[in-house]
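Field log, afternoon session.

UNIT: design team B
ACTIVITY: writing a sequence onto a fixed backbone
BACKBONE:
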C-alpha cells in the first residue's frame, strides 16, 4: 500500500474496522514520512466476515470451527480426519462466494458435511448449534 504523501511502499496498520458493505477501513502510518492515511480494502484478499445472531461481525476463524467439529466427533469413529472435515466445510463456505456469512450458514454447511461423514457426529453438532433440542426438531432435520 503506497503512501499517498511520499510514495513509500511500507506502512503499518494502526486501526482496522469492518464496514457495513464488507470493506475494511484501515488507518495506516507511513514508515518513512510518518503521515497517516486511510485505505478502504475490498474483501477480495480478506477473510470472510461472520455475522452472529447479535449482528456482530468478526473475521471467520477456522480454529473456532475446528473446535466445534472436534467436540461433535469426539465419541465417534471417523473414517476421515477432523482436519479433512474442517477443510471440506471451509471450502464449501468459500464456494458460497459470500463476503459475509452468518453463523447459520456455517452450521448448515457443517451439518451437510457431517451428515456425509458420520450421522452421530452430525446429530451431536445439530443439538449443540441449534436452539431446537427436541426430538421433533431432530426428526425434521433428518427427514428434510
Ligand atoms: Zn509517506
Amino acid at each position: 500500500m503506497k503512501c499517498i504523501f511520499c510514495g513509500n511502499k511500507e506502512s503499518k496498520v494502526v486501526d482496522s474496522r469492518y464496514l457495513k458493505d464488507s470493506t475494511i477501513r484501515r488507518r495506516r502510518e507511513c514508515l518513512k514520512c510518518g503521515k497517516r492515511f486511510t485505505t478502504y480494502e475490498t474483501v477480495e484478499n480478506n477473510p470472510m466476515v461472520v455475522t452472529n445472531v447479535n449482528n456482530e461481525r468478526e473475521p471467520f476463524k477456522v480454529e473456532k470451527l475446528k473446535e466445534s467439529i472436534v467436540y461433535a466427533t469426539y465419541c465417534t469413529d471417523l473414517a476421515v480426519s477432523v482436519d479433512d472435515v474442517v477443510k471440506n466445510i471451509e471450502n464449501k463456505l468459500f464456494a458460497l462466494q459470500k463476503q459475509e456469512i452468518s453463523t447459520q450458514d456455517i452450521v448448515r454447511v457443517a451439518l451437510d458435511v457431517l451428515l456425509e461423514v458420520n450421522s452421530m457426529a452430525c446429530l451431536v453438532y445439530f443439538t449443540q448449534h441449534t436452539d431446537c433440542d427436541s426430538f421433533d426438531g431432530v426428526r425434521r432435520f433428518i427427514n428434510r
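LOG NOTE: The pocket of zinc ion is lined by residues 3, 5-6, 8, 30, 32-33, 35 (CB under 6 Å).
NEXT ACTIVITY: expression trials, pending approval
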